[in-house]
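Exercise: predict the structure of this protein bound to zinc ion.
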Amino acid sequence: METMIAPVFQGEGRLTYESRPLPQLKDRADVLVRVQACGICGTDLNILATPPAHNATHGIVIGHEGVGTVLEIGDDVRNLTIGDRVVIAPRITCGKCAYCRAGLDNQCLDYNTIGTTVDGAFTPYLSAPERALFKISDAVPRDDAVLFEPLSCVVGALARVPFQPGNNVAIIGSGPMGLLFAQVLRAMGAGRIIMSDLVSYRLQFAHTLGVDVVLNPADSDVAQAVKAITGLGADLVIDAVGNQMKSAADLARRGGHIILFGLRPHDTPAVSQYQITRYDLTLHGAFVGLKPFTQTIKLLESGRIQPSSLITHRVPLSELAAGVELMRSGQAMKVIVETQETEAK
Ligand SMILES: [Zn+2]
Ligand SMILES: [Zn+2]
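Solution:
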């Protein structure tokens, strides 16, 4: 039997490298993927924290930002063939609950997530249902394709707001997600893009990527600066942190829109309800998006944005834990894991 070595999540922040048989197709609609690379996500850091800040099943392989090629297909697979390049849309929804039936599948009541509840992509080989895989052109560089999943969340969130070319945008949080928002909004014709973060490494990074203005709330009044730059305040504000609702409201112009994107389940930020009502602010909670996948593929295939510019480090699968530490250090932006250690890009 053919085997592979993969890091298995054991709970309490532990990963152990185990020899496992190559995954088999368990269902006629399954696809065997030879994984090439998988990004390390904030969710993975949360899963591997002690105590964990995000639950994952013990005994599985984690990782959900994968890109690879199709090696084998089940008899019922219709839209993929051997050799196709694919990326992963990790949530496998039930298709049957009231939310799925209403088209709100991001609110599915009975779902699995690749890399959280079932085996993920920090592995050389992965078996996954066809509907969790999307074909992407070989012409897209591997390191752009590997950021498909986080990019799809950004595309999904932006579908909620009435954004217009020329709109000024303030983004709180200059990590990978904030920077993906900046890249997409730039491509959509944003006016000024202003980003804030407490970590100077991240601000420097944003500056290098061409973000118009970067601000550190530790040494400037961000609300005042946004007002000075935009006149009235930002047309669109994005909280890419997850507990910045109050600051977000302070940065928006009257009648502006705010996307609440980051996920911090334990934080309960205070907010002025009066301010939201009096100034006609519209808040949009945005979780993973409603089928943003095909659109995200088109965006990547257009070549109009280069998410790979966020990647600062590439580590082999044997160094996954070191990659996680790099992300935690605050001195790396995006770290990707190369799952076929001998393979060229
Ligand atoms: Zn992710
Ligand atoms: Zn469902």
